[in-house]
Protein backbone atom coordinates (compact mmCIF):
# COMPACT_ATOMS: atom_id res chain seq x y z
CA UNK A 1 0.00 0.00 0.00
CA UNK A 2 1.04 3.61 -0.39
CA UNK A 3 2.15 4.07 3.19
CA UNK A 4 4.54 1.12 3.11
CA UNK A 5 5.84 2.13 -0.34
CA UNK A 6 6.68 5.47 1.15
CA UNK A 7 8.41 3.87 4.12
CA UNK A 8 10.25 1.46 1.81
CA UNK A 9 11.53 4.26 -0.41
CA UNK A 10 12.73 6.17 2.62
CA UNK A 11 14.36 3.10 4.18
CA UNK A 12 16.05 2.13 0.89
CA UNK A 13 17.41 5.61 0.32
CA UNK A 14 18.90 5.66 3.80
CA UNK A 15 20.51 2.25 3.29
CA UNK A 16 22.22 3.22 0.07
CA UNK A 17 23.19 6.71 1.19
CA UNK A 18 22.66 7.77 4.80
CA UNK A 19 22.58 11.40 3.77
CA UNK A 20 19.83 10.73 1.21
CA UNK A 21 16.95 10.63 3.65
CA UNK A 22 14.28 12.78 1.95
CA UNK A 23 13.64 15.25 4.74
CA UNK A 24 16.15 14.60 7.53
CA UNK A 25 16.00 18.09 8.98
CA UNK A 26 12.24 17.91 9.37
CA UNK A 27 12.09 14.63 11.32
CA UNK A 28 11.63 14.70 15.12
CA UNK A 29 12.08 18.45 15.42
CA UNK A 30 12.26 20.22 18.73
CA UNK A 31 8.91 21.56 19.83
CA UNK A 32 9.33 25.31 19.13
CA UNK A 33 9.45 27.78 22.01
CA UNK A 34 6.20 29.50 20.87
CA UNK A 35 4.37 26.23 21.50
CA UNK A 36 5.58 26.07 25.11
CA UNK A 37 5.33 29.79 25.81
CA UNK A 38 1.93 30.48 24.23
CA UNK A 39 0.11 27.25 23.40
CA UNK A 40 1.26 24.73 26.02
CA UNK A 41 -2.24 24.31 27.46
CA UNK A 42 -3.87 24.10 24.04
CA UNK A 43 -1.64 21.70 22.12
CA UNK A 44 1.25 20.35 24.21
CA UNK A 45 -0.07 19.28 27.61
CA UNK A 46 -1.78 15.85 27.18
CA UNK A 47 -4.21 16.47 30.05
CA UNK A 48 -5.74 19.47 28.25
CA UNK A 49 -5.50 17.97 24.76
CA UNK A 50 -7.75 15.06 25.84
CA UNK A 51 -10.50 17.56 26.75
CA UNK A 52 -10.06 19.76 23.70
CA UNK A 53 -9.99 17.21 20.87
CA UNK A 54 -13.75 17.21 20.21
CA UNK A 55 -16.04 18.59 17.50
CA UNK A 56 -17.99 20.63 20.07
CA UNK A 57 -14.83 22.52 21.04
CA UNK A 58 -14.00 23.32 17.39
CA UNK A 59 -17.60 24.44 16.76
CA UNK A 60 -17.50 26.77 19.76
CA UNK A 61 -14.10 28.26 18.86
CA UNK A 62 -15.24 28.91 15.29
CA UNK A 63 -18.62 30.42 16.31
CA UNK A 64 -20.54 27.61 14.59
CA UNK A 65 -18.67 27.99 11.27
CA UNK A 66 -16.70 24.75 11.64
CA UNK A 67 -18.59 22.67 9.04
CA UNK A 68 -18.78 25.57 6.60
CA UNK A 69 -15.00 26.06 6.78
CA UNK A 70 -14.26 22.34 6.68
CA UNK A 71 -16.41 21.96 3.56
CA UNK A 72 -14.18 24.44 1.68
CA UNK A 73 -11.31 22.00 2.21
CA UNK A 74 -13.13 18.66 2.01
CA UNK A 75 -15.00 19.56 -1.21
CA UNK A 76 -11.63 19.93 -2.97
CA UNK A 77 -10.51 16.39 -2.13
CA UNK A 78 -11.35 13.79 -4.76
CA UNK A 79 -10.61 10.08 -4.41
CA UNK A 80 -7.09 9.27 -5.55
CA UNK A 81 -5.62 12.67 -4.66
CA UNK A 82 -2.38 13.12 -2.75
CA UNK A 83 -3.09 15.50 0.09
CA UNK A 84 -0.83 17.01 2.75
CA UNK A 85 -2.46 18.56 5.81
CA UNK A 86 0.28 20.52 7.48
CA UNK A 87 -0.99 20.33 11.09
CA UNK A 88 -3.45 18.31 13.17
CA UNK A 89 -6.87 19.81 13.86
CA UNK A 90 -9.14 18.87 16.75
CA UNK A 91 -12.37 16.94 16.02
CA UNK A 92 -13.08 14.81 12.97
CA UNK A 93 -11.58 16.95 10.15
CA UNK A 94 -8.43 14.85 9.80
CA UNK A 95 -10.41 11.60 9.57
CA UNK A 96 -12.90 13.02 7.05
CA UNK A 97 -10.11 14.38 4.84
CA UNK A 98 -8.10 11.14 4.97
CA UNK A 99 -11.18 9.04 4.19
CA UNK A 100 -11.95 11.19 1.16
CA UNK A 101 -8.55 10.59 -0.45
CA UNK A 102 -9.37 6.87 -0.39
CA UNK A 103 -7.27 3.80 -1.02
CA UNK A 104 -5.97 5.05 -4.39
CA UNK A 105 -4.84 8.33 -2.88
CA UNK A 106 -2.46 9.33 -0.19
CA UNK A 107 -2.99 11.43 2.91
CA UNK A 108 -0.04 12.91 4.79
CA UNK A 109 -0.59 14.56 8.16
CA UNK A 110 2.29 16.37 9.84
CA UNK A 111 2.42 18.06 13.22
CA UNK A 112 5.23 19.24 15.43
CA UNK A 113 3.89 18.11 18.82
CA UNK A 114 4.10 14.49 20.06
CA UNK A 115 0.63 14.42 21.66
CA UNK A 116 -0.97 15.79 18.48
CA UNK A 117 0.73 13.03 16.48
CA UNK A 118 -0.69 10.45 18.92
CA UNK A 119 -4.20 11.87 18.39
CA UNK A 120 -3.70 11.95 14.61
CA UNK A 121 -2.57 8.31 14.61
CA UNK A 122 -5.55 7.28 16.69
CA UNK A 123 -7.87 8.88 14.11
CA UNK A 124 -6.29 7.75 10.83
CA UNK A 125 -3.45 5.35 11.68
CA UNK A 126 -5.61 2.39 10.57
CA UNK A 127 -5.94 3.72 7.00
CA UNK A 128 -3.20 2.14 4.83
CA UNK A 129 -2.98 5.20 2.57
CA UNK A 130 -2.55 7.65 5.46
CA UNK A 131 0.75 8.61 7.07
CA UNK A 132 1.21 10.66 10.24
CA UNK A 133 4.64 12.07 11.01
CA UNK A 134 6.12 14.48 13.51
CA UNK A 135 7.62 17.18 11.35
CA UNK A 136 7.89 20.91 11.10
CA UNK A 137 5.49 22.19 8.42
CA UNK A 138 8.25 24.59 7.36
CA UNK A 139 10.57 21.70 6.44
CA UNK A 140 8.45 18.71 5.38
CA UNK A 141 9.10 17.22 1.94
CA UNK A 142 7.17 14.30 0.47
CA UNK A 143 9.07 11.10 1.19
CA UNK A 144 8.80 9.61 -2.31
CA UNK A 145 9.11 12.77 -4.42
CA UNK A 146 5.46 12.49 -5.39
CA UNK A 147 3.92 15.92 -5.79
CA UNK A 148 0.88 16.73 -3.70
CA UNK A 149 -2.35 17.67 -5.47
CA UNK A 150 -3.63 19.61 -2.47
CA UNK A 151 -1.87 21.07 0.57
CA UNK A 152 -3.98 22.54 3.36
CA UNK A 153 -3.17 24.68 6.37
CA UNK A 154 -6.30 24.79 8.51
CA UNK A 155 -5.89 27.51 11.16
CA UNK A 156 -2.13 27.05 11.58
CA UNK A 157 -0.75 30.39 10.33
CA UNK A 158 -2.37 32.57 13.00
CA UNK A 159 -0.70 30.46 15.68
CA UNK A 160 2.91 30.82 14.56
CA UNK A 161 5.28 33.82 14.73
CA UNK A 162 5.72 35.78 11.50
CA UNK A 163 9.11 34.30 10.57
CA UNK A 164 7.54 30.82 10.87
CA UNK A 165 4.58 32.01 8.77
CA UNK A 166 7.05 32.94 6.00
CA UNK A 167 8.89 29.64 6.13
CA UNK A 168 5.71 27.55 6.29
CA UNK A 169 4.05 29.44 3.40
CA UNK A 170 7.21 29.14 1.26
CA UNK A 171 7.56 25.44 1.97
CA UNK A 172 3.91 24.76 1.11
CA UNK A 173 4.18 26.73 -2.13
CA UNK A 174 7.39 24.96 -3.08
CA UNK A 175 5.61 21.60 -3.00
CA UNK A 176 2.83 22.32 -5.51
CA UNK A 177 3.07 21.13 -9.09
CA UNK A 178 1.41 23.06 -11.94
CA UNK A 179 -1.96 21.39 -11.43
CA UNK A 180 -1.82 21.55 -7.63
CA UNK A 181 -3.42 23.85 -5.07
CA UNK A 182 -2.43 25.23 -1.70
CA UNK A 183 -5.30 26.17 0.60
CA UNK A 184 -5.11 28.41 3.66
CA UNK A 185 -8.14 28.48 5.92
CA UNK A 186 -7.59 30.98 8.72
CA UNK A 187 -8.59 34.16 10.52
CA UNK A 188 -8.90 37.51 8.72
CA UNK A 189 -9.73 41.08 9.70
CA UNK A 190 -13.49 41.18 10.44
CA UNK A 191 -15.74 44.00 9.26
CA UNK A 192 -16.52 46.69 11.84
CA UNK A 193 -20.19 45.67 11.95
CA UNK A 194 -19.31 42.08 12.91
CA UNK A 195 -19.72 41.83 16.72
CA UNK A 196 -17.38 38.84 16.85
CA UNK A 197 -14.58 41.25 15.85
CA UNK A 198 -14.59 42.72 19.35
CA UNK A 199 -14.48 39.31 21.03
CA UNK A 200 -11.56 38.27 18.82
CA UNK A 201 -9.71 41.53 19.48
CA UNK A 202 -9.77 40.61 23.15
CA UNK A 203 -8.80 36.97 22.46
CA UNK A 204 -5.89 38.05 20.24
CA UNK A 205 -4.60 40.47 22.87
CA UNK A 206 -4.73 37.86 25.64
CA UNK A 207 -4.16 34.50 23.98
CA UNK A 208 -3.19 34.71 20.31
CA UNK A 209 -0.23 37.09 19.89
CA UNK A 210 0.54 35.96 16.32
CA UNK A 211 -3.01 36.26 14.95
CA UNK A 212 -3.03 40.05 14.52
CA UNK A 213 -0.65 39.76 11.56
CA UNK A 214 -3.47 38.11 9.58
CA UNK A 215 -5.72 41.11 10.38
CA UNK A 216 -3.02 43.51 9.14
CA UNK A 217 -1.74 41.67 6.06
CA UNK A 218 -2.86 39.40 3.28
CA UNK A 219 -1.23 35.96 3.31
CA UNK A 220 0.58 36.57 0.00
CA UNK A 221 3.27 38.93 1.45
CA UNK A 222 4.46 36.06 3.63
CA UNK A 223 5.59 34.28 0.46
CA UNK A 224 9.04 35.21 -0.84
CA UNK A 225 7.89 35.03 -4.49
CA UNK A 226 4.16 35.85 -4.40
CA UNK A 227 4.09 36.96 -8.06
CA UNK A 228 4.75 33.44 -9.24
CA UNK A 229 1.32 32.39 -7.95
CA UNK A 230 -2.38 33.19 -8.46
CA UNK A 231 -4.00 34.11 -5.13
CA UNK A 232 -7.80 33.87 -4.72
CA UNK A 233 -9.35 34.94 -1.45
CA UNK A 234 -12.87 34.34 -0.17
CA UNK A 235 -14.00 35.68 3.19
CA UNK A 236 -16.99 34.52 5.22
CA UNK A 237 -18.84 35.41 8.42
CA UNK A 238 -18.35 39.16 8.05
CA UNK A 239 -14.67 38.82 7.19
CA UNK A 240 -13.78 36.80 10.30
CA UNK A 241 -12.43 33.93 8.21
CA UNK A 242 -10.53 33.70 4.95
CA UNK A 243 -10.15 30.83 2.53
CA UNK A 244 -7.18 31.51 0.24
CA UNK A 245 -6.51 29.29 -2.73
CA UNK A 246 -3.08 29.49 -4.36
CA UNK A 247 -2.02 28.00 -7.69
CA UNK A 248 1.13 28.34 -9.77
CA UNK A 249 0.88 30.90 -12.56
CA UNK A 250 1.12 29.10 -15.87
CA UNK A 251 3.82 30.63 -18.07
C1 LIG B 1 -3.70 23.55 13.13
S1 LIG B 1 -3.36 24.60 14.40
C2 LIG B 1 -4.96 25.02 15.09
C3 LIG B 1 -6.14 24.22 14.72
C4 LIG B 1 -7.44 24.48 15.39
N1 LIG B 1 -7.41 25.59 16.34
C5 LIG B 1 -7.95 23.23 16.07
O1 LIG B 1 -9.11 23.17 16.33
O2 LIG B 1 -7.23 22.26 16.31
C6 LIG B 1 -2.74 23.70 15.75
C7 LIG B 1 -1.69 22.62 15.47
O3 LIG B 1 -0.55 23.15 14.82
C8 LIG B 1 0.59 22.42 15.29
N2 LIG B 1 1.79 23.19 14.92
C9 LIG B 1 2.25 24.36 15.42
N3 LIG B 1 3.38 24.75 14.80
C10 LIG B 1 3.67 23.80 13.85
C11 LIG B 1 4.70 23.63 12.88
N4 LIG B 1 5.71 24.52 12.75
N5 LIG B 1 4.67 22.53 12.09
C12 LIG B 1 3.66 21.62 12.22
N6 LIG B 1 2.65 21.72 13.11
C13 LIG B 1 2.66 22.79 13.93
C14 LIG B 1 0.31 22.29 16.78
O4 LIG B 1 1.07 21.26 17.37
C15 LIG B 1 -1.18 21.99 16.78
O5 LIG B 1 -1.47 20.62 16.74
List keywords for this structure.
single chain; seven-stranded mixed β-sheet; 7 strands; alpha/beta; 251 residues; binds S-adenosylmethionine
For the sheet with most strands, the description reads: 7 strands, mixed
Number of strands: 7
Share of residues in strands = 15-25%
- Work out the helix count: 11
Secondary-structure element pattern, one letter each: HHHHHHEHEHEEHEHHEE
Spans of 5+ residues with little confidence (pLDDT < 50)? 1-5, 7-23
Please tell me what the overall shape is: globular
Q: Helicity range of the residues?
A: 25-40%
Quickly give the structural class. alpha/beta
| Strand numbers in spatial order across the main sheet | 3-2-1-4-5-7-6
Would you tell me the overall average pLDDT? 90
Radius of gyration from CA coordinates = 18 Å
- In whole angstroms, the N-to-C terminal distance is 36 Å
Query: What ligands can be seen in this structure?
Result: S-adenosylmethionine
How would you describe the overall organization of this protein?
- The protein is of the alpha/beta class.
- It is built from 11 helices and 7 strands.
- It has helices at residues 2-16, 33-37, 40-44, 46-52, 55-61, 66-74, 93-101, 114-124, 162-174, 196-206, 212-216, and strands at 82-85, 106-111, 130-134, 150-154, 181-187, 229-236, 241-248.
- The protein has a 7-stranded mixed beta sheet with strand order 3-2-1-4-5-7-6, covered by helices on one side.
- Helix 9 links the parallel strand 4 (150-154) and strand 5 (181-187).
- The protein is globular, with a radius of gyration of 18 Å.
- The termini are far apart.
- The model is unreliable at 1-5 and 7-23 (pLDDT under 50).
Amino acid sequence: MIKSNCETVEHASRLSDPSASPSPASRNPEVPSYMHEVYDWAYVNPAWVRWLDHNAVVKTLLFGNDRRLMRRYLARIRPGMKVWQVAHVYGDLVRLAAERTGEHGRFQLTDITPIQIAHGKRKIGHLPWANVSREDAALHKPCDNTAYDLICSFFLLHEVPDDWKRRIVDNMLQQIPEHGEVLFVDYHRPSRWQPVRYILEWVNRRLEPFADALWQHEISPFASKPDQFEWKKETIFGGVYQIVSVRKKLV
